[in-house]
Design goal:
One of its GO terms (biological process) is peptide transport. By secondary structure, the chain is of the alpha+beta class. It contains 18 helices and 20 strands. Strand 6 and strand 7 form a beta hairpin. The two termini are about 40 Å apart.
Length: about 550
């Protein structure tokens, strides 16, 4: 239940998310000027239509759902003043608070029903429609097999929304903090027709802020405080000014001139500013990894990658400390396994899932053990040489350093191994990988919500994003248990997921390389920003300028 992204897109998204989401409050002209935040973004907003968005970092502060994300990925009050779930975990009932759209219209239960039906209608072509999977009839509606009015959501009255699930969804509450699941005003959609969401004036907003002076293509726009917002009294920022800045060098110059309050840093800039008191790092639940093609058209290559010893040898020959600290040099962390750290904690002990998933001698740097596995794998294959090609996106500036490092390291430590590099445009790379036209792929995944399943559903047999065609019946069984039999038992479900992650990590079905951390310079006057590792990562509801 998540969306595959190229390394480039995630790098841009990390910047975009940080730089696109705030606004504020003003009492006098002086305080208004003081409570203005100046941020940059790498590209113009593509859409502000939540049904058609390709990400919600930039809109998470202008649109609100039943909940919001607070600190540490915890749900906090949103448009719902209360929510309850049935004992079987399949029926959720939300009671809405007295809230209004930015134009003064009341936000009603029917606004949620309309929004969900609009998003799931096949003609909408929602990129994120898959996140509705598990809600009654959602998959069939999105596939065009049922009409939109068959989805499991209804308005019991103007203030009560009832949602029916096909099965319990353990992370449903967190999911309901996603702007994707928020309401839409049908009157406004009908009024503007095709213009809806193409300009900031052709939209109404339900969150702490609203957008001004955005025309769909411009390089400057503002977010301002939404004075109709139900919790407006806590919002301190009055305005945030956005400017498109494509180069980190230009961004740094503007920051030094006092024209930006926050700016992302390139790898080289990180090395120079790491000791600066204004240096900040924000982790993201994005893991870059090596994907194997278990259905490679070349039988010889397929046999090599299907050999567990070959995969373990490759993983153990990679020095992730050197990769993250020297090759990348941007603050990225070394992963313990396929699931990112800082994403979710054990409901009983509070221990990070990433710590529990760790399997010794899988992602460690151990050349001696790597050589042993390599020789064992070569013997099983009946060969002394293995040649593979790694496909990567040349749009991403980190791809070439990573692939060049891997080529040098692997060919040095694994006798008889030759790694060819194929750097192509990101769109081409993604298309080839999705079609299964690759040997190895430099890929990555960022969680859409704070739950391990956001990563662990990828390797299931037959899933859309399992383009390497990894398949393990024991793994599938554990994920199925977690999502069905044990879905309503937090502890049992967690244990299922830990076992599945350990199995996958021991198997090296995909080989994790690094976890992304994005570095910035941030003015000391910027306070109260809430950052999360997944979903709507940045919240400026409580942000202010000191």
């Amino acid at each position: 239940m998540r969306k595959l992204r190229s390394l480039l897109l995630l790098t841009l998204a990390a910047v975009l998310v940080v730089t696109l989401a705030a606004c504020g409050k003003s009492a006098t002209k002086t305080s208004s000027q003081k409570q203005t935040l100046n941020l940059s973004t790498t590209a113009p907003l593509d859409t502000i239509d939540i049904s058609k968005a390709t990400g919600y970092g930039q809109t998470g502060n202008v649109f609100e759902s039943f909940y919001r994300l607070g600190k540490d990925g915890k749900t906090t009050p949103g448009l719902a003043k209360s929510g309850k779930v049935s004992k079987d975990g399949k029926t959720w009932t939300f009671t809405l608070r007295n809230a209004k759209w930015s134009n003064g219209d009341k936000i009603t239960a029917q606004d949620f029903v309309y929004s969900w039906r609009r998003t799931l209608a096949p003609k909408t072509k929602s990129t994120y429609a898959y996140l509705f999977s598990g809600i009654k009839n959602a998959d069939q509606v999105n596939a065009g097999k049922l009409s939109p009015d068959k989805i499991g959501i209804k308005a019991l009255n103007s203030k009560t929304v009832q949602i029916q699930l096909d099965k319990p969804i353990a992370y449903f509450k967190v999911l309901m903090a996603y702007p994707l699941f928020g309401p839409q005003n049908q009157k406004v959609v009908d009024k503007y027709g095709k213009k809806y969401g193409t300009n900031s004036k052709y939209m109404v907003y339900s969150g702490p802020f609203k957008i001004q002076n955005w025309n769909g293509t411009g390089n400057k726009w503002q977010f301002v405080k939404n004075n109709q917002y139900w919790d407006k009294k806590v919002v301190k920022l009055s305005k945030i000014k956005y400017t498109v800045v494509s180069s980190p060098t230009t961004g740094l110059e503007l920051y030094q001139q006092g024209k930006l309050d926050l700016t992302p840093l390139s790898n080289e800039q990180v090395k120079h500013y790491k000791g600066n008191k204004e240096f900040q790092q924000y982790p993201y639940s994005y893991v870059g990894y090596l994907k194997y093609n278990f259905k490679d058209a070349n039988q010889t290559k397929r046999k090599a990658m299907s050999n567990k010893d070959i995969r373990l040898a490759i993983s153990l020959a990679i020095d992730r400390q050197q990769l993250t600290k020297k090759v990348l040099g941007d603050g990225s962390d070394t992963p313990t396994g396929f699931v990112a750290s800082g994403l979710a904690k054990d409901p009983k002990t509070g221990v990070d899932f990433a710590k529990q998933q760790a399997v010794p001698n899988t992602v460690d740097y151990n050349v001696k053990l790597a050589k042993q596995h390599w020789q064992k794998g070569l013997k099983a294959l009946g060969t002394k040489n293995v040649t593979l090609t790694i496909t990567a996106s040349n749009d991403d500036p980190t791809s070439n350093p990573i692939t060049q490092y891997m080529k040098s390291e692997l060919q040095q430590d694994l006798p008889g191994f030759k790694l060819n590099i194929r750097n192509v445009p990101g769109q081409v790379a993604n298309q080839e990988v999705l079609k299964g036209d690759f040997d190895l792929s430099l890929s990555g995944w960022g969680a859409d919500f704070n739950d391990p399943i956001s990563f662990l559903q990828i390797p299931e047999t037959g899933t859309a994003y399992n383009s390497g065609k990894y398949s393990n019946p024991a793994y599938d069984k554990l994920i199925k248990q977690a999502q069905n039999r044990d879905a309503n038992n937090a502890d049992k479900r967690w244990n299922d997921l830990v076992k599945a992650a350990k199995l996958f990590n021991a198997d090296q079905g995909m080989t994790p390389l690094y976890q992304q951390v994005t570095s910035y310079l941030q003015k000391p006057s910027v306070k109260g920003v809430i950052h999360n590792t997944a979903g709507t990562q940045w919240s400026y509801k409580y942000a202010y300028m000191k």
